[in-house]
UniProtKB/TrEMBL annotation:
Gene3D superfamilies cross-referenced by the UniProt entry: Rhodopsin 7-helix transmembrane proteins (1.20.1070.10)
Claim: Membrane is one of the keywords in the record: yes
Pfam families: 7tm_1
Membrane topology, record value: Multi-pass membrane protein
Gene Ontology terms: biological process: calcium-mediated signaling; neuronal signal transduction
All copies of domain G-protein coupled receptors family 1 profile, residue ranges: 37-294
Family note: Belongs to the G-protein coupled receptor 1 family.
Name listed for the protein in its UniProt record: G-protein coupled receptors family 1 profile domain-containing protein
GO cellular component: plasma membrane
Primary localisation category: membrane
Cell compartments where the protein resides: Cell membrane
TM stretches of this protein: 23-46, 58-81, 104-127, 139-156, 182-205, 226-244
Length: 326
């Protein structure tokens, strides 16, 4: 049974709602940008990128993941439009939360696949030459989708509708009664869905940067381009993924502490809750930024793996990693 909310919790909930009233226009803009950018990226992959290299396979799956979640943003924007009220029933509530989780961890896993693909193509081109083929990337992408669906499936259980005054809330985490079971699940997601991929991505990009910087055949300008791409890849974690998982679990911990001993006060909870809401906006903003990441930035890298006479400096596997739009 849930412990009654401490004194002042109603005022704190009002502060939370006041903050969330400003989310709907942001979500509306994100929907327009994300839908246009990822739909165009998918069209470009299908119509103009032939044959597909391994990096394009991962980037295509990333674009599909982003587009699927973008289609749910109009419902989320309407939900946050004052007064905050979910009008679409429990099934769509669970589906929206499930799609958010699938997009979040699908994005992380496919970005990790892209970084590992670049690592193999640049650091170990002879090792993967003739061995790393698009069919391998398709199999790995299928495995990634299964893993993402498995990690996200518990959200279908935890997400529920909860009355709040005259309105209905679609919970993004869990009810107070389910919180003791949801917090360990959230910690597992942070470790497996964010921490491990971040470590793999960081190690991959560090090895890429070291290999490129040590190569005597690459100009300083080309090295800066590679460094810029590496920086953007790491920044996605530093700006959105890592803060989101840290703040989500801290927010859940404060909720649980408040339920257990009544120690939660608005002064402590509101800054964390507001920062958590902001981190969710930054995570969702990634679906707008990904087309730029595997489009313009990848194009800027294509030249560095080619020799002065138009011949490749590296092996074909290296081109396969760098020419991919991811």
């Amino acid at each position: 049974m849930a412990v009654p909310a401490p004194a002042g919790q109603g005022a704190c909930n009002a502060s939370f709602s006041a903050f969330q009233e400003h989310l709907w226009p942001v979500l509306t803009v994100e929907f327009v940008l994300a839908f246009a950018g990822n739909a165009f990226a998918i069209y470009r992959f299908v119509a103009h990128e032939r044959p597909w290299h391994t990096g394009i396979v991962y980037s295509f799956n990333l674009a599909v993941s982003d587009l699927l979640y973008a289609l749910s943003l109009p419902f989320l924007a309407a939900y946050y439009y004052p007064p905050k009220h979910w009008r679409y029933g429990p099934a769509l509530c669970k589906l929206e939360r499930f799609l958010f989780s699938c997009n979040l961890y699908g994005s992380i896993f496919f970005l990790t696949c892209i970084s590992l693909n670049r690592y193999l193509g640049i650091v170990h081109p002879l090792l993967v030459h003739g061995r790393l083929e698009p069919r391998h990337a398709k199999l790995l992408s299928g495995a990634a989708w299964l893993l993402v669906a498995g990690l996200s499936a518990p959200t279908l259980h935890f997400s529920e509708l909860q009355p709040r005054g005259n309105c209905t809330e679609c919970l993004g985490s869990a009810t107070d009664e389910q919180l003791p079971r949801y917090l360990p699940y959230s910690l597992l997601l942070a470790a497996v869905g964010c921490g491990l991929p971040f470590l793999l991505t960081l190690l991959s990009y560090a090895a890429i940067l070291r290999t490129v910087c040590r190569s005597p055949h690459i100009t300083p300008l080309e090295k800066r381009k590679v460094g810029r791409l590496v920086s953007v890849g790491v920044a996605l974690y530093a700006v959105s993924y890592l803060p989101y998982h840290t703040l989500r679990n801290l927010n859940l911990h404060l909720r649980q502490r408040g339920l257990q001993d009544g120690a939660l006060t608005c002064r402590h909870a509101l800054p964390v809750h507001s920062a958590y809401q902001l981190s969710k906006i930054l995570v969702t903003l990634n679906i707008c930024a990904h087309p730029l990441l595997y489009g313009a930035l990848a194009d800027s890298m294509r030249g560095w793996c080619r020799g002065p006479r138009g011949q490749d400096r590296g092996q074909p596997a290296e081109n396969m990693a760098l020419q991919a739009r991811g």
